[in-house]
Automatic annotation (TrEMBL):
Residues 676-699 are annotated as: Disordered. GO terms for biological process: cytosolic ribosome assembly. Coiled coil: none annotated. It comes from Nepenthes gracilis. Transmembrane segments: none annotated. One of its GO terms (cellular component) is cytosol. It comes from the Eukaryota. Pfam families: EF-G_D2, EFG_C, EFG_III, EFL1, GTP_EFTU. PANTHER family: ELONGATION FACTOR-LIKE GTPASE 1 (PTHR42908:SF3), TRANSLATION ELONGATION FACTOR-RELATED (PTHR42908). This is Elongation factor-like 1.
Amino acid sequence: MGDFDPRKLRNICILAHVDHGKTTLADHLIAASGGGLLHPKQAGKLRFMDYLDEEQRRAITMKSSSIALHYKDYYINLIDSPGHMDFCSEVSTAARLSDGALVLVDAVEGVHIQTHAVLRQAWVEKLTPCLVLNKIDRLISELKLSPSEAYYRLLRIVHEVNGIVSAYKSEKYLSDVDSILAGPSGEVCDESFEFLEDDEEDTFQPQKGNVAFVCALDGWGFNIWDFAEFYASKLGASTAALRKSLWGPRYFNPKTKMIVGKKAMGGGTKARPMFVQFVLEPLWQIYQAALEPDGDKGMLAKVIKSFNLCVPARELQNKDPKAVLQAIMSRWLPLSETILSTVVRCMPDPITAQSFRISRLLPKREVAVNVASSNVVAEAELVRKSVELCDSSPEAPCIAFVSKMFALPVKLLPHRGPNGEVLNNLFDEGGSIESDECFLAFARIFSGVLTSGQRIFVLSALYDPLKGETSHKHLQEAELQSLYLMMGQGLKPVGSANAGNIVAIRGLGQHILKSATLSSTKNCWPFSSMMFQVSPTLKVAIEPSDPADMGALMKGLRLLNRADPFVEVTVSSRGEHVLAAAGEVHLERCIKDLKERFAKVRLEVSPPLVSYKETIEGDESNPLDNLKSFTGNSEYVEKATPNGRCIVRVSVMKLPTSLTKLLDESSDTLGETIGSKLEQTHKKFESPSGSAAEDEGPHEALRKRLVDAVESYVASAYRENDKDKKEKCMTLWHQLLKKIWALGPGHVGPNLLLTSDSKGNINDSSVLVCGSSHVSAKLGFIDISRRSDITDETSSGAKQALYAEAESLESSIVSGFQIATAAGPLCDEPMWGLAFAVEAYIYPLATHSGNETPQQQPEQFGIFTGQVMTAVKDACRAAVLQKKPRLVEAMYFCELNTPTEYLGPMYAVLARRRARVVKEEMQEGSPLFTVHAYVPVAESFGFADELRRWTSGACSALLVLSHWEALLEDPFFVPKTEEEIEEFGDGSSVLHNTARKLIDAVRRRKGLPVEEKVVQHATKQRTLARKV
């Protein structure tokens, strides 16, 4: 691997929705590449890349795996990725290491939810995509479409996919324009106009050769260019002209032998587009001749003779017409030739790809250069330039990125090295005997040459070369034991690998947890973090059946955490080991791996632990009145500390949903901004479109989005003729945004703590703890240097001491707010979307008689700061209970596909799961209905199994985490009016509603008190038989 031209290399991945044919396509590419790995007869049946038992059993791919292929004089590294939403993290790891992507779409099912996700992943990682429309044969044999109907169906799918990519382009265009307009005038550089390139042109155009039409199961496929070359001589037209004409509204006039538009053909003629006439109709004729009993068998012989196909006689005499058809089609239009020629022609080599992917991989850092750090910055810039050029010379710095760690049984490692020497695989890098599993790094080399036995630095995502010694905890040095070329499950040892290659590395198992950057120099910025589509939401508590196996379980959890890029292992406050996975299928695989591979002990798994949040009922119809009552402190809860020295008043208001979602989604950026990590190490802020604001810092971009969210909320609440109210409302909101003291919980949550408005005190002896607008200053809403001085210079010494004590209590108030928002009053779940205004007044120490000194009083009730903290926490929780508390639950977006006859059972299952149907439509040209619904996460466990059971396996569902939604039911509902009493009965007989049942279930799990009758029916529990 050391001496080859990087321009002859392609790194590609296959992306698609689940069951759209990725692994089947990979089988045919592997079989055609030679090497004896897979016989062509087994292609599409063996699923070579799905080598795990669980993958073969479920018939879905669960991990991304790579294989090296040969095509002519090209090397192609192919990465097969999962399509199931539970394993979307594997798509992220595959996309980071690739330069191009084959996006598969089922011609019958069309674009699905995961198709959107993988297109976005390819867009964010700046991959060059090619579209592959798979299962074309189903249009003929299953749907029985005519060639014209099939053409318009394919046309619609291509338009839909282009529309998705166009939306991402538009988002980037608008965000880039905003960043240029917001930047200082005169500083717009040429890089800012990158969005102008080719914005109007569709990404996927069959006439450009980047769209292929295939049947992966039967092993045939084609693109427009194949037929253009074939028909060029027959029609007497140039190949270039036919490439442009074989797709779209182009028609062939047989009289004039001219390619014309529809108008030139005249309205009366039944003209067919050239794609229908010259491409689809011959395919339909061959299928009808082969599959129909009365088909024209002479057509098959004609095709064999015209194209000089070498088909063995025994295959033509096969009794199965499907096998005969497959034998002819796979030789006439070989799938591997079509796909690999498209890859070589349309996808960039590593040198070209890294030149335009560099802004995503290693974004430029805006740093203040001083004399001490100038050498570091210069070398870091040299490293960036080497990555951009894909410099494969031995003198270039060696840079690689590890996208994931994967576990492999030690017995599967090669026993001989690249030169035939016998290897010892029983010892790890520490020299001790390893477990049965060996951890390999899935990596791509971006610069330089990597060799086995080389010493290299491992940089975590938080490493900063400018910080020197303080950043050394994010830097490790390791020795690479072995390099392997991945061949699916097999590994081929290599001595060295050049820039552009994808390899597996042994020797980093003790140094990397999930992903990392490898560098031969310390003066290198780490690569940007990968984007994951969802977060692990399904949590279970795990413990061994035998307590003596706890050590084995903890070791197994550590190994699982390293082997799976998406799993999260934590210890709860109650001491439970909590495993978080992306979904039920992912969780089942993790539990199976724990039992059989990593821990090898019997386990007890709890029911799923569902996360909730707590909020209050908000009246969004009149935001101005809400703001006035909130800022006027007309409704507040008052609490006093046990020693009576501090009185706390708290009022609460619900934040707009759009603002709450923005705060929730921007937690990482808020953590960096508020945590003062912006001096030199801030990561470039990325908007949801994946583009970055080049000319402004993250806090400025976030501030603008916060203001936009408030403005859109106010604009939606008031009509155009209510301009006065709208302006007053915006003025009040701008004042509130200037008073943000802290966020919670965890200092980055979606709840606000606001400083007090009150200027006066309760009486002359008390002092108000004012607080500071710390977060507002960090976000740029106010001048960071502005700080009001509350101390009165003319006051007495005792009052001065009281002011100093008030200032020292600010941290206690923030801590009380953090505790309250981390555990709400309903069931100790975090609060969501609330703004708290806290006023804390402190009084001087009371005078004492006798020998008792003032210093003895605080000891009676505990430390004063702790008393204030507790009072703030209790006041915040009481304020929430006073304002109609509500439970907030997570919602899945569910996409279901079902035949018409199973719509009834499907809706019955959705109704039992408290689902809300938002859209239902029939797929054009097929008997399937597509239904979109929102399903609560708490009701989703076992949903897929129940759905399959009630619909006899005909209905399929895909769940992806969508949003948080408040339950409208009052958990403390008691009938009061005559109508309510008539409907629900008196208070004693009213059953708990859904919200109350969910709250009680969480409280029982956490060991909190629950109001319930221990004896339900006392009369039924007497002993009726009097036996002495």
